[in-house]
User: Fold this.
Amino acid sequence: MNNHVNEPLTPRERDVARLVARGYSNRQIADDLVVAPSTAERHVANILSKLHMRSRAEIGVWAVQHESISSRPSIPGRRDTLPPELTSFVGRERALRELAELIPKTRLLTLVGSGGVGKSRLVLRLAGSRIEANGREVWLVELAGLSDPALLPQTVASVLGLRDQRGLSMVETLVAALRARPLLLVLDNCEPVVGACADLVSAMLLRCPDLQVLATSRIPLHLTAEITWPVDPLVTAEAVQLFVERARGDSQFRAHRPEQPRRR
Ligand SMILES: Nc1ncnc2c1ncn2[C@@H]1O[C@H](COP(=O)(O)OP(=O)(O)OP(=O)(O)O)[C@@H](O)[C@H]1O
Ligand SMILES: [Mg+2]
Assistant:
């Protein structure tokens, strides 16, 4: 049931909508606004309810159309929208070395692997290293919550701070904006809209010669220009390190000994 019929967004909710449009998770919104993650989650739920929406992507599109969202970097002075890492990064040194060598040789690199294997963490690290490597702009578009493929061009445009241009489709608006702009576009979690990603990326790569795309997906985009990189699970020692670090950082975590059989 919608409890917010025709209620306008509060100023705080509009702040939250703007951050959603920039691809922030609830945790990152909470950090940015210095509130608890549960508060950020409640704001997002209220926005969805008030605007009669079902996904964060829809909020992003709304925010671009109704709020003045500038295409500003997440950290002042940097030319990227990569969110700060909130937890330590473990291992993957060899993959990062090999991927860094591969990137200059392709315009579309997709990290592929099963759910939870670490594709998104790896791509953020990789993209971060590219900013330092060649100084080009790096934009991250989070697609995990997007269920309607028709919203993909608008979602990408909203992160880039582009508005509808009269007489142009959203794809044409994107192409016009990126045609002469050296940019690395990171499309994270493409799988819910993988077909739409393939269509959009192929249109943009064809007409934007300075554009490079890094993607993560459980399934490849299947484009001729694509190089896929299978992401394997962390090796055992790294997985153990990750487990220990997360357990240390989690005040609720308790290690339990297996129950001992009672002596009679
Ligand atoms: N190298 C790493 N160092 C630290 N944490 C990691 C690493 N790889 C993965 N994780 C953690 O494991 C969890 C899953 O990782 P991630 O979201 O990157 O997986 P994914 O392959 O993108 O999953 P999905 O297909 O569901 O999008 C996250 O909590 C992430 O922070
Ligand atoms: Mg992911």
In short: The two ends are 55 Å apart (CA to CA). The pocket of magnesium ion (ligand 2) is lined by residues 119-120, 188-189, 216 (CB under 6 Å).
